[in-house]
Write a structure and sequence with these properties.
heterodimer; A: 595 residues; alpha+beta; Methylamine Dehydrogenase, Chain H; 4-stranded antiparallel sheet; 33 strands; B: 435 residues; mainly alpha; 2 strands; globular
């Protein structure tokens, strides 16, 4: 080949120059074609709307109308697949085309640079006849240019300030918190500190603490009885909670609050009740007096076993470190204090309660246990009652008698009723020696308390007079539930007992393989019992055993659900879910009616 | 227009247009829309693949690149070595690491760490920020020459250039300090990382990004064929810091390996107009001194004017700069028009149940901080302007052709134009290389 070029008197640089020119022309042509094709493809992509193509929509509509017709369903799926495949194929083409453009541009640059290299630019400096004047002229021009820049900058900024300046109007529309359909709007107050009235009437409609308002354990309105967390049937949403905990969810308006903790820090999480979206997370740090390292707690308890509480304006949470924290509904810390690291062999687990402008904290430990009422606005102590009891994991239950609020507080070895106004003990029941993990229950007239290895007692809510007691099939983690004239208990061994509240007579007993940590709760005439493996059984709150449904939750469950606005909020080992319920159709898959 | 220029122009136009369309087209496909009550699963971000080891590897490679660039620029005087190094850096830091091992952007991390100590500054980020500056203090802007992927991609497309007049260079040269000042101010008030947000080349490295930025990247490359490295010279905020350090550098690249023979062959060799030519003494020293005094007296006034300008512009532009102000503005619009939840931001805000007054309070607070920060930024720009103006009035006599230490990118293009270089290489008789 070289001979041929020698024969045609082409020097090697001319040959290379010709080659490079050819590359330039060829690459330019390819770029033009590729660019045109891609531009066309991109324009088609911009206007492509495969999901709304009439044929696909029609097929889907037909399939939805006749879901039993396999042919129609297959046709809809086929069209859907075709539309998506066509779109993504075109997108793939565009992506590959982008690479072609890149490579083409690189080749073009390379070839053009090569032609420049083969035809070097000859620098012939001109004769500078009067360098002084030239330099001076250039510098003056540069100074003027600099001044022009600064003038433009300053002038432009001031002009923008004068022309575009508008007084910022106030966002003065009334506050509206998104409400759940069919429910009263429970808007948080805008100013959380100044002159606030207790929202207990509204709190009674929500689920503001462990086992609901006052710890009663139920609501009068019905809640879903059929769902399947494994298949998603009847499930509005299901999200993973970033940090694990055994605490239970609480609900206020359209917020769902849970707590969690890792090995070092606790946190409060706020989820949107409609969508499950995590709205904010507040990590508990820098609390004055907090220990540098968290106390050792058992794995079954963790650092965040206590359930949080809300007063409708703030959410409160306490952790095994003794850190007690209050955040407003935007996740901003309002106050925090450390109550002292509790001397508790398993870890602090007593949940918070709220009652008429008082945050009730049961803080039992091996020595120096206390019951405190704090001001929710500031965290300051209203009263602090020392308790001569041992460490415990129980949560107070609250009711009203003769116009005053009372709290039954259980620990080894006493059940004591306190006046919530003053903290003074009203009555007490003794001889309840055991490691107390359960909380008392009340139906307003009676208070029920008991634990395995102790006994189960029913006492008058007014004077504490013992009405009856029992020592059979006693719970040790799940708290009893007093509902519809029955007292339901669920043991760690899997025995659920229904007793008559008046005399303690056993009405029915059912034994299952798996035990219960989650406390029974009720909605209307249904009782919810969730075993440790995560099988939720719904039974009739009646004097005879009447199963309603069995609903798989997909994984272990130790938390007690929350019920609000006709929904069930359930926390499993990893997830938080909102359940609206599946239709009671017989074909509802995954739900197996109990025999 | 010559034929080759026509091909050139058409090719470029098509590349830019197609890229913009590609960038905007591939992002358009909506998420699958399930209307059967199906809940779209919550987005789970993929596991973070960056590990500390990989970050330290990047710091190590950056250090190695700087050492090599200094070696090629000063010891070997090898333009080829610098070119190969810059291509390698473009491949690794640009295409492989997708432009995110970036001292330019690290300015913001450092500022954030300084104003908000709780966020801290990771050691690797501190290294990425400081190493090029330290190198510039020792051997000049070798980072720009051989290690910066943003510079490398622009360097590759340089085709034909003409020297820019001094006034234009000075005018455009004020943009980087302005950009730096306001970017730092924005980080300090929590308005985001603007340097990264408006990086014109990161979209090209990732082959994905906002269509406007992709177009800007290609346009800058197109301009860069005739105005070399426009981003480095007239936009790069990190270049301001590098220029200052390079002014003070202990050693620096030289055009001639030994002595300048005043041949003037290098006069137009620098694509970046970074060669200082011999300057004659000022013809009227008294007038020059007088102008200097005026400039010195006026300097504080420019600082104040800059501060006023920054303060004045902050409030009207706040809604475009700060997210809190933007949210409040959107909420106001929604409240006045009655059309709620027009954007994701307002939707999330309303879903949170927070009172609107809270958005208003955040807006007021952000505006107050933005006004203060922009006033400081404006004052700083005024100060830079005053210093540059004074420097222009001051003329130091210069006998030889030397690199302008602040502007020289240490690319080594001028080596090939110096006859003494060929003498050093033994390709030219020493006698013929004498003046």
């Amino acid at each position: 080949m070289s001979e041929r070029f020698e024969q045609s008197n082409l020097s090697s640089w001319q040959l290379w120059s010709a080659i490079l020119r050819g590359v330039v022309a060829g690459t330019g042509f390819v770029l033009c074609v590729a660019g045109a094709v891609l531009a066309l493809a991109c324009l088609q992509l911009r206007h492509a709307d495969p999901l709304n193509s009439p044929a696909r929509l029609e097929a889907i509509r037909a399939a939805q109308q006749s879901p039993q017709n396999a042919e129609l369903v297959a046709r809809a799926r086929e069209l859907d697949l075709l539309a998506r495949r066509a779109f993504f194929a075109q997108q793939y083409l565009v992506r590959r085309g982008g690479w072609i453009l890149w490579i083409g541009a690189a080749l073009l640059f390379g070839a053009l640079s090569g032609t420049r290299w083969l035809q070097p630019r000859v620098v012939v400096p001109g004769l500078d006849t009067s360098p002084e004047e030239r330099v001076e002229r250039e510098r003056r021009a540069a100074q003027r240019a600099l001044t022009l820049y600064m003038s433009l900058l300053v002038g432009g900024a001031v002009a923008v300030g004068l022309v575009l300046r508008t007084p910022a109007p106030a966002v003065s529309a009334p506050l509206r918190t998104p409400s759940i359909a069919g429910e009263a709007t429970l808007a948080p107050a805008s100013d959380p500190v100044q002159s606030e009235e207790p929202l207990d009437d509204l709190l009674a409609q929500a689920w503001p603490a462990f086992r609901g308002y006052g710890g009663r354990g139920g609501v009068q309105s019905p809640a879903p009885t059929r769902w399947n967390l494994e298949t998603g049937e009847g499930v509005l949403w299901k999200v993973e909670v970033p940090r694990h905990a055994f605490s239970s969810p609480i609900v206020w308006s359209n917020f769902v609050f849970v707590t969690g903790a890792d090995s070092r820090h606790g946190a409060i999480y706020c989820f949107n009740a409609d969508s499950g979206q995590l709205l904010w997370e507040h990590e508990v740090r820098d609390v004055p007096g907090s220990p540098p390292t968290p106390p050792k707690v058992s794995e079954d308890t963790g650092l965040a076993a206590p359930t949080p509480a809300t007063d409708g304006r703030r959410v409160f949470a306490v952790f095994a470190t003794g850190d007690l924290i209050a955040c407003d509904f935007s996740g901003r810390r309002r106050w925090a204090r450390n109550l002292g690291v509790p001397k508790n062999p398993y870890g602090h687990a007593s949940s918070l309660q709220i009652y008429r402008g008082r945050l009730i904290v049961q803080y039992d430990q091996e020595t120096g246990g206390r019951l405190l009422a704090l001001d929710p606005r500031t965290g300051q102590t209203i009263w602090d009652v020392p308790r001569d009891v041992k460490a415990g994991w129980s949560t107070p239950v609250i009711w009203t008698a003769e116009g005053r609020g009372l709290a039954a507080v259980l620990a080894n070895p006493k059940l004591i009723a306190h006046d919530l106004e003053t903290g003074r003990a009203v009555w007490q029941v003794e001889h309840l020696e055991a490691e107390i993990g359960t909380s008392p229950a009340t139906d307003g007239e009676r208070v029920f308390a008991g634990n395995e290895y102790a006994r189960l007692v029913a006492v008058s809510a007014t004077d504490g007079k013992e009405l009856w007691s029992s020592d059979e099939d006693l719970p040790d983690v799940a708290s009893p539930l007093a509902w519809n004239g029955c007292l339901f208990t669920a043991t760690s061994g899997g025995i659920v007992t229904c007793r008559d509240v008046t005399d303690g007579r056993r009405l029915w007993l059912q034994e299952w393989d798996e035990g219960f940590y989650s406390s029974p709760i009720a909605a209307a005439d249904a009782v919810y019992l969730i075993d440790r493996k995560g099988l939720a059984r719904v039974v009739r709150a009646a004097r005879t055993f009447e199963p309603i449904s069995e609903n798989p939750c997909g994984e272990a469950c130790g938390a007690t659900p929350a019920i609000a606005h006709g929904r069930l909020y359930l926390r499993t080992a990893r997830f938080l879910a909102a359940i609206t319920g599946a239709p009671p159709a017989e074909s509802a898959s995954g739900n197996t009616s109990a025999p | 227009m010559p034929k080759r220029s026509r091909i050139w122009a058409w090719s470029w136009t098509l590349v830019v247009a197609a890229s913009v369309l590609v960038a905007s087209g591939v992002q358009r496909f909506p998420k699958p829309d399930f209307r059967s009550g199906y809940t779209v699963p919550q987005y789970t971000p993929p596991a973070v693949e960056r590990t500390a080891a990989r970050e330290w590897l990047d710091v190590g490679l950056l250090t190695g690149g700087l050492v090599l660039a200094g070696y090629f620029a000063l010891a070997r005087r090898s333009r080829r070595g610098l070119w190969i190094l810059s291509v390698a850096s473009l491949v690794w830091f640009g295409l492989v690491r997708k432009g995110c091992v970036c001292p330019v952007g690290s300015i913001q991390n450092v500022v954030l760490g300084l104003v908000s100590p709780a966020d801290g500054i990771p050691w690797t980020v501190a290294g990425i920020f400081l190493l090029p500056l330290v190198a510039a203090l020792v051997v000049g802007r070798v980072f720009c020459a051989g290690v910066c992927p943003l510079g490398a991609i622009q360097d590759l497309v340089i085709f034909r250039w003409r020297p820019l007049p001094l006034w234009l260079r000075q005018f455009l040269g004020m943009i980087p300090p302005t950009y730096l000042a306001f970017a730092v101010a924005n980080v300090a008030v929590g308005a985001g990382f603007w340097i990264c947000r408006y990086d014109p080349f990161v979209g090209l490295f990732r082959r994905s990004g906002p269509a406007g930025l992709i177009a800007l990247g290609w346009i800058l490359l197109l301009i860069g064929t005739v105005v070399p490295r426009p981003y480095c010279r007239f936009l790069c905020p990190y270049g301001v810091l590098l220029g200052w350090c390079s002014q003070l550098s202990r050693r620096h690249l030289t055009i001639s390996p030994d002595q300048c023979i005043q041949c003037r062959l290098c006069e137009e060799s620098c694509p970046f107009d970074a060669i200082r030519v011999p300057t004659p003494p000022h013809p009227d020293r008294a007038a020059a001194r007088r102008r200097m005094v005026y400039a010195l007296v006026l300097a504080p006034a420019w600082v104040v004017l800059g501060a006023v300008a920054g303060w004045a512009a902050a409030d009207p532009l706040a809604a475009k700069v700060h997210p809190d102000c933007a949210l409040a503005a959107e909420l106001r619009t929604e409240e006045s028009t009655g059309k709620k939840e027009q954007s994701w931001e307002t939707r999330v805000f309303r879903a949170s149940g927070r009172p609107l007054e809270q958005a208003e309070e955040a807006d007021r607070d952000a505006r107050r901080r933005l006004r203060r920060a922009w006033a400081w930024a404006g004052a700083w720009v005024g100060g830079v302007f005053a210093v540059r103006r004074i420097a222009l009035g001051r003329r130091s006599e210069l006998a030889d052709y030397v690199p302008d230490r602040g502007q020289c990118l240490s690319c080594g293009r001028c080596f090939a134009y110096c006859p003494r270089e060929y003498v050093r290489l033994g390709e030219l008789d020493g006698i013929r290389g004498q003046p």
